[in-house]
Amino acid sequence: MDNYQILIEKARALHGEICPGVVLGTKMSIVAMEELGMDPMKKNKDLIVYVEVDRCMTDAIQAITGCTLGHRTLKYKDYGKFIATFVDMITGKAIKVSARDDISSSPPGFWTSIEKSIKQNENNRSTPNKDDMRLTVEKLSKMPVKELLKVEEVDVEIPENDIPGFPHYISTCSICGEHVIDRKEFKIGGKIICESCANKL
Ligand SMILES: [Zn+2]
Ligand SMILES: [Zn+2]
Predict the structure, then answer these.
(1) Ligand 1 geometric centre to CA of 125 (Å)
(2) I want to staple 85 with a disulfide (CB 3.0 to 4.6 A). Which of 18, 50, 119, 128 is the partner?
(3) Whose atoms come closest to the Cα of 197: which ligand?
(4) pLDDT tens-digit profile of 122-177?
(5) From the CA of 168, how far away is ligand 2's center (Å)?
(6) Which CATH class is domain 166-200?
(7) 3-state secondary structure of 88
(8) What confidence tens digit (pLDDT) does each residue in 54-108 have?
């Protein structure tokens, strides 16, 4: 088994299947870690990943990098984009990886498969056709990284409150009385207010 096969099996173990998003997340993790001079076969404690979608891709990234929400090394931005940014906390180098538009001449590419699944859902066929899925997975697995992914170096500043480690600060919401850590509260009209209460104001 080559490294890609070992890593995609790791992703399958967490996600439960190998689907187009898992292939994408696996390839994203490999290319980004290599760009950062890290070994994708080993967990790197200096890695932090920002993901922009709560879909299959993200499970593959978690399985391969070992970055998790609980360790504060996986950050979720609710943008609905198949994009992830991998940051080396020591050097500050950051690599943004996104799914390229299908440039291959022989569909289905990644976006073609997503669009097809959405159309099937619209027609009330809630699960994508298994043969279509298998074909897409095969195609994406073989597709050169350059065709599948856009890889770019970007500037990322990790906010002080996002850095992993034991919490240093706690406050109490003046409306609901619930505790808030890591300075995630707001100060509105001189009062400490948590985000859920602030959203209802
Ligand atoms: Zn999936
Ligand atoms: Zn509150």
Answers:
(1) 17
(2) 50
(3) 2
(4) 776 666 677 878 888 998 999 999 889 999 999 999 988 889 998 889 999 999 99
(5) 20
(6) alpha beta
(7) strand
(8) 999 999 999 999 999 999 999 999 999 999 999 999 999 999 999 988 776 666 7
CATH of domain 3-160: 3.30.1330.130
Q: Which two tokens stand for residue 71?
A: 């360790």
Distance from Cα 173 to the centre of ligand 2, integer Å: 5
- Ligand that comes closest to the CA of residue 137: 1
Task: Give the start-end residues of each E strand in 124-185.
Answer: 149-154, 170-172, 179-181
Domain boundaries, the chain: 3-160, 166-200
Give the number of other CB atoms < 10 A from CB of residue 10: 18
Residue 198 Cα, ligand 2 centroid: separation in angstroms? 7
Total-model pTM: 0.91
Tell me which ligand sits closest to the C-alpha of residue 114. 1
